[in-house]
Amino acid sequence: MVDVTPADAVPPAEVAEMELYHPHSWWTKYVFSQDAKVIAIQYSATATAIGLVALVLSWLMRLQLGFPGTFDFISPEAYYQFITMHGMIMVIYLLTALFLGGFGNYLIPLMVGARDMVFPYVNMLSYWIYLLAVLVLASSFFAPGGPTGAGWTLYPPQAIMSGTPGGQDWGIILMLVSLILFIIGFTMGGLNYVVTVLQARTRGMTLMRLPLTVWGIFTATIMALLAFPALFVACVMMLFDRALGTSFFMPAIVEMGEQLQHGGGSPILFQHLFWFFGHPEVYIVALPAFGIVSDLISTHARKNIFGYRMMVWAIVGIGALSFVVWAHHMYVSGMHPYFGFFFATTTLIIAVPTAIKVYNWVLTLWRGDIHLTVPMLFALAFIVTFVNGGLTGLFLGNVVVDVPLSDTMFVVAHFHMVMGVAPILVIFGAIYHWYPKVTGRMLNEAMGQFHFWVTFLGAYLIFFPMHYIGLMGVPRRYHELTATTVMTESANDLNAFISIMAFLVGFAQIVFLFNLIWSIRHGREAGGNPWRATTLEWQTPETPPAHGNFGKELPIVYRWAYDYSVPGAKEDFIPQNMPGSFGTSREPA
Amino acid sequence: MSVILVFLLVIAGFAGWWLSHQRLMAKPWLEQGLIGDTIGLEGSALPTAKIGLGVFLAVVGCLFALFTSAYFMRMALSDWQALPLPRVLWFNTGVLVLSSIALQCASVAARRGEIDAVRLGLVTAGLTALAFLVGQLVAWRELTAGGYLLTANPANSFFYLITGMHGLHILGGLVGLGRTTAGAWNGTRPERLRLGVELCAMYWHFLLFVWLAIFALLAGWAASFIEICRQLLT
Prior knowledge:
The complex is a heterodimer.
Chain A: E1 2-3, H1 26-31, H2 36-66, H3 76-112, H4 120-139, H5 171-199, H6 212-244, E2 254-255, E3 258-259, H7 267-300, H8 308-321, H9 337-349, H10 351-365, H11 374-397, H12 399-405, H13 409-439, H14 445-471, H15 489-522
Antiparallel strand pairs in A: 2-3
Helix pairs in contact in A: 2-3, 2-4, 2-15, 3-5, 3-6, 3-7, 3-13, 4-5, 5-6, 6-7, 6-8, 7-10, 7-11, 7-13, 8-10, 10-11, 11-13, 11-14, 13-14, 14-15
Chain B: H1 2-20, E1 31-32, H2 48-75, H3 88-112, H4 115-145, H5 154-185, H6 190-219, H7 221-233
Helix pairs in contact in B: 1-2, 2-5, 2-6, 3-4, 3-6, 4-5, 5-6
């Protein structure tokens, strides 16, 4: 046991106090607020609202796929528009915004022991620009020609041609403008998250004492700050091609017997730029999930996280590696075989730190005092789902396997498992975990259990069969396949089954939303620390935390975030800000 | 994509250097008690605003590195025709250098507390930066008058796009500079003014560096430089 300083001789906090902005009216307190906690809730509410649109779009797609030819209003154009908007909303406007803008804003200052983000005004601007981006995106549903139907990857040349819905109308322009706005807004927020972790940690909170949630969000934010510019560049250049007639991406094309004015451009250039953003994006969503799940498992298994150092290194390693794997999304673009070999290798290497994390979660559970609370159920479900999606990733990471599978439903099943279902399970778990801190009341347990089981089992019933459909050779991206030879009767039956399950899972989310609203008033009183957790956000003097988070004096941190079930301690958890040394021996992790 | 990868390598180098000072080998489960201020692990002594600006400049650098990457990839295709650089760009470069120097002087003066010199430096920097922007517009007019229109060739498109993007960043900087300059007259606290001037100087130096890189790129020197590197490597 290393006691760095005698615990009882601690001078008062000396971290420089930041000048807090104090709101003077209802408007600056709840609407144009500079308090990270309010901004977090604004981010989360907006992301959830636009996420519901994406949910409805997925239902519409499943209606068409499960029961082709039954619904006349789903034209091929409309189907592509649903695909595009569903994908874009889920990946960027929901997952990225919720993890970084929502959880990042709420948890970073509280967990590192800061009063607020370091640039509160910029933080507020970040939200309002995000809201503007969402509104621009939503407005494309009402624009002439409707939203773009180019697929969420927006590949040129088709994205800006008349054959694609929205290509020569407003759809694609609004999409590009909305993305550009999102990136500007995100950069403002991202600066805050990074610099707050760097500069506003309270006394004693060294980097190696940060909860893994903060490590995950911190690393993901740095990645996002470096990856989003690639999407920005791609969007600006495509906007030029579409609106001003340049030829960055547009090759010479004859459309409807008419030579277009473009010529010589390179669609592959766009793919490089897009995936240079697109692959880190997977981990931008995954790393915060990794971090949060580590904390949930440790807290609800009453056991310290296994291999904390390894977990930190793995997060950093994954973050760095994810910038050199982008072209594995482009195996079918006709690249040089050596190029493909390189990217297949880097892709498989990234499985190593990821596997380390999975082992460490499992070993944390080993002989733990596991409480099967709703957040824990979601965390466990995440591990299973992530392993599942990760394994099919090994298939697709290899060029020879990817080429035949690339255009099938197998890919759809893979990425929904690994970056759709898995992170969303974590989001649910995190909401059940931190809702008591945000509102002061617990979410209803029965509704939570119902929500979990229907969502978890339902998601498997949706995406497991989809792997088989893909292996049978059923292609993705098609509006209707009934009359073709690949669609056997059993494949059609499976499709109908998947669609029914999709509705079921969707309706379970309505129960969840009802629970969120109902529990604000009728939930059980939570108290300050219902999960008996160690991290600083549970040690605030008020619940929900007041403006400034920690009352008069900032907490001082004396230990890491995972002192659970320490032998010799009075309780089975020791908060990070509790002085004194406990315990005699602890197995090194 | 080699340019952006090299850029990220530099960033990774910085990050690695910083991380290596953060006791990543520590065993936090064995350490109880107050650590941190004994070893200096609680954030940097630099002002938070400077670190924030530093992170932002990394993002800006990333943006221009990506434009450069795209430039080289598009340049390799057959329809590329380099455009003659307007002479006025040389003049603009000189003006931007002056602007940077003026801010550096202001920053030195702020450290010494000479408020008049600070004001002079800030105003000179602002005016020269404006002159730079006007000069860039003149360059655009010259090119369009010469028939080098935006859509005629990808080299032209990139010229307008990249110089425009750089100009927008200068314009954004001018907003910050304007606020700092106003503060120099309205009696901001000296330490706050000094921080503001230093931030402006940092941003200006960086944008000057970006401009020099862009200039080399657009003039074709960067391409020959990369060609030499490539030959050395193979």
